[in-house]
Design brief:
Length: 263
């Protein structure tokens, strides 16, 4: 049976002055509804390119992406993206930033009161109700990322795409946001694809870790199912043998089997 999301034999060539550059070669990945999938791999291997193809921002040269039986050819609110550097409109308050997304998806379909309740609900999911009327310049980097996540969730996307969402944050803020994301995930059961460089983050959050080979012509080297029971608690996992096994598998893949050669 077809999976919810199929990345089907995807290859992409970028035009360069020296001819086409094959960034991805024959990437195949099947994702179930509600699965949390992390993509990990060395810098420049093609993680963002995979995400941009799923997001409809790039077109595959060969193959394609099928979401719930429909081919993806352009960007759409059914695939909301959260970037590493929050992309909030600086002249709008946190509430208004989420409102813009909600109106674009639900305007004309839901009443004003329903939309207001929905915006407030999503802000409370990321624990930002207290600052909803502040401007982005008045809140911290971690809080901005929370608003970015609320905005993405508020569109009720079929797939939430996260490109190193916590990469620019300090370790403690990052840990808080990972915990929040796990809580939200437990409540909403979103289908998520997240790019990360952080092995612990990948094991903590994921149902599946996709490990990419080095480019050019990068592909998927290995897919590992993470069968740790949920809810997951970082403190308890520190001494968990299975957790450490998953962690060492990813480290081994990245630093032994597919170590990046530095020129
Ligand atoms: N628009 C483009 N034109 C030409 N080459 C590109 C383009 N986008 C990406 N590439 C190349 O494709 C390869 C994969 O890039 P990509 O950004 O997907 O890697 P990444 O794994 O996300 O890297 P990082 O972890 O550093 O963010 C790189 O060699 C990059 O230079």
């Amino acid at each position: 049976m077809d999976k919810y999301l199929n990345i089907d034999h995807v290859s992409i060539d970028f035009p360069t002055p020296n001819g086409p550059f094959r960034a991805l070669d024959n990437v195949n990945l099947k994702i179930d509804k509600g699965e949390f999938v992390s993509i990990i791999g060395h810098s420049g291997c093609g993680k963002s390119t995979v995400m941009n193809i799923v997001g409809g921002l790039y077109q595959a040269t060969e193959g394609g992406v099928i979401l719930e039986g429909r081919e993806v050819n352009d960007p759409g609110p059914d695939r909301a993206i959260v970037f590493q550097n929050h992309s909030l409109f600086p002249w709008l308050t946190c509430y208004q930033n989420v409102e813009l997304a909600v109106k674009s998806v639900f305007g004309g379909k839901r009443s004003k009161q329903e939309m207001k309740d929905w915006i407030e609900h999503n802000l409370s999911l990321v624990h930002m109700s207290h600052a909803m009327h502040k401007l982005p310049s008045e809140i911290s980097g971690g809080m901005k990322q929370r608003i970015g996540i609320a905005r993405a969730l508020s569109m009720e996307p079929k797939v939430l795409l996260m490109d190193e969402p916590f990469g620019a944050l300090d370790a403690l803020t990052r840990a808080h946001l990972q915990d929040s994301l796990m809580e939200i995930q437990a409540e909403l059961n979103n289908t998520v694809i997240m790019i990360t460089h952080d092995v612990d983050e990948a094991v903590l959050l994921s149902d599946k870790i996709v490990m990419m080979t080095n480019g050019p012509a990068a592909s998927i080297g290995e897919v590992m199912d993470v069968k740790l029971p949920r809810p997951r608690k970082r403190l308890e996992l520190a001494d968990n043998g299975d957790y450490n096994h998953y962690r060492s598998e990813v480290i081994h893949f990245l630093h032994a089997r597919h170590a990046r050669k530095v020129a």
